[in-house]
Design a protein that fits this description.
Length: 197
């Protein structure tokens, strides 16, 4: 009887141990894994801007190693423009001077007008020949000569209108003298030609 009780106790003890072992295994298996503690990002350490190192030399001149003008074309362009304007003014004066012979010839019968106009051409020519003449001098010479040319034409018309009869008589006499001169030249030529034959 004692023996049965012992066996029964041992059996119960074994079953109890097994149950306890199983329960312990399940408990440990279901133990949740703890979440890791978040590691906050540390605030950035302020990095102060260092003071600039003083430069003993002043700001370097712009425009290359020698500090030249970085836009040399600007000044050159202005010089070219002035030179072109002076050339154009000289060309205009030269063109006006070229009309001297034809203009002066028109006043061959008007002594005073012819003299005044010839003097204006002479003055303008001296300016044109002066290679050092500035732009304003050339323009002034051109303007003065053009004024003299216009004045000569106006004075001639005024004189003709105010002295119409005298001008008509003079023109007739001049044509007659010209005709007589032409006839005389022809007569002398014929005599010389016939004498040589």
């Amino acid at each position: 009887m004692k023996r049965k009780n012992i066996l029964k106790f041992v059996s119960l003890l074994g079953i109890g141990s097994f149950v306890m072992l199983a329960a312990a295994s399940c408990t440990s298996a279901t133990t949740p894994t703890p979440n890791p503690t978040p590691n906050p990002t540390p605030n950035p350490t302020p990095n102060p801007t260092p003071n600039p190192t003083p430069n003993p030399e002043p700001n370097p001149p712009s425009g290359g190693m020698n500090g030249g003008n970085t836009n040399p074309g600007g000044g050159q362009g202005m010089m070219d423009s002035a030179a072109q304007e002076l050339t154009a003014a000289r060309t205009a004066l030269t063109s006006l001077l070229a009309s001297k012979n034809a203009n002066v010839e028109m006043y061959s019968d008007y002594a005073k007008i012819k003299n005044d106009l010839t003097a204006a051409y002479t003055t303008a020519k001296s300016t044109s020949d002066n290679t050092s003449a500035a732009l304003e001098q050339v323009k002034s010479a051109t303007s003065t000569l053009q004024t003299a040319i216009d004045k000569a034409a106006s004075d001639k018309n005024d004189f003709n209108n105010q002295n119409a009869d005298l001008v008509s008589a003079y023109t007739s006499l001049k044509d007659a003298v010209k005709s007589e001169t032409t006839n005389l030249v022809r007569f002398v030529w014929c005599k010389l030609y016939s004498h040589k034959r």
